[in-house]
User: Fold this.
Amino acid sequence: MNGRLECNSIIKQYKDGRTALKSVTFDIKLSGIFALIGRNGAGKTTLVRILATELLPTSGMASLDGNDIIRDAKNVREIMAIVPQEARPIQWMTPRQTIISSLLWRGFGYGDSRKRADDVLDQFGLTGYKDKPNRFLSGGIKRKMLVATALASEARIIFLDEPTTGLDPISRKELWDVLNEQKKKRFIFLTTHYLEEAEALADSIGILENGELLAIGTMEELRSKVRYPYTVRVNGGMDLTSIAGVVIQENGGYQQIMTSKEEAYSISKRLIQNGVTFSISPVSLNDIFFFFAKRRVDGEKE
Amino acid sequence: MVNAIYAMKNYPIMMVNAFVSPLAFLIVLTLVSRGALFGVAVIGGLIMALTSSGLSLQGDLVHFKVDFKLQDMVVSSPTTAFIYLFGMAISELIYYLPGIAVLLAMAFINLKFGLFPTLQVTGAMILMFVLATALGFMLSTHISDIMESWAVTGVVSILLSTIPPVYYPITYIPLPYRYAAYLSPTTYAAQIAQQAMGYIHFPQVTIDIDWIVLIGVSVVLLLISVKKTRWREI
Assistant:
């Protein structure tokens, strides 16, 4: 698939007057995994619901693989599937029944649906659970099964709205493995507020904050957009405010500063001389996110 | 359809729940009337079963929409609102089929009626099902809380299939209160069926008007439910 996801000046204002999206514009290739990160209430779900043709934007336009989400909604729906935030499988169904039912809704025949359900359950390592009622399954298995339901349709575009929220680290890792495998065959649009998840999975990342898209690009592109490419983490005992850089957080006695390569080198030498414990690394998505979020807050204050 | 079959397979009590109310009313009315209202009560049971099927659809759809996000997944798929409505309506009907079968069996064993009355009753029942389904679907897309849905189901169910002359002839209601019964579409279906079975004797023009009203309301509600329902949110 060589199409693009184009989003042009999307604004969403709800009836209660709340503006969830403030002119969101971006253009990405429909391949691999795109992760949209942001805090709770940033507007991630609203954007996904608009792109997945569930919700109409107040203004602006978007298209998937050349299909306008409003004018050509029927075509868009043919090529995509979604696992909404907080979606749960119907309790009294089994995983196999859930997937068969979903495929029947999409217009597949019963025989084909059964075969596809068995295949996808096998692919996800869920064959052992296929006839167990969903209410007896763990949260991780349920989530994997919902993702399997979306993927069984062979939709080329998959929207996953916070698919790993509430999962334990092992279940989360298992789902990551599945998504890493699936991204070779389809485009996955993922929202998450786990920054390490976006960093581990995504080929490109968008940062959404308070309805505004603050930055978008690959990890390298995002790193290049921040002024300071290195982060130094110090276990107290040093005043960082005199150093050129951005102190981005202070947690549990640690201080962290994003700074230039030269300053990072200079600080390292001083810290070693003073016997202070520290770590130095290229900025992570976590750092980038805080950089953009802080810049936005500072900008508002100014 | 498979949704209902899977549900009944996993929870057989759902099948019992679907026909216990019509059957209970039928038994009570038959006993109280010493058998005189048995035929009317069978018709009432059928109307109540089909109305309940449509109204249960409302509850199930809200449950699936709110608790499982099923509607979101369906909206974002090639399934249209009409296909979803049709599929879920058939699914609901499956729950009620055993109860309807019991009522029909009782009618065939105990009552004597010809082909034309049978066709008239069948037609009125089909329209009742379409009407209740459309109403249930339309309500479901506007309700966002399962608690509200339960309350709506309870109130509408009583207004449509308990208070109106569904389980008793409309002639039991004294004038001018009788006119109030015509606010419910189930009254028209019951009147058509009761006339066909010979329990009431109204001029043919009254029955013709019943058909016109019943067909009109069903078509209008069906169109509204498909065209004006809150499918893609705004």
Summary: Chain B has one domain: 2-227.
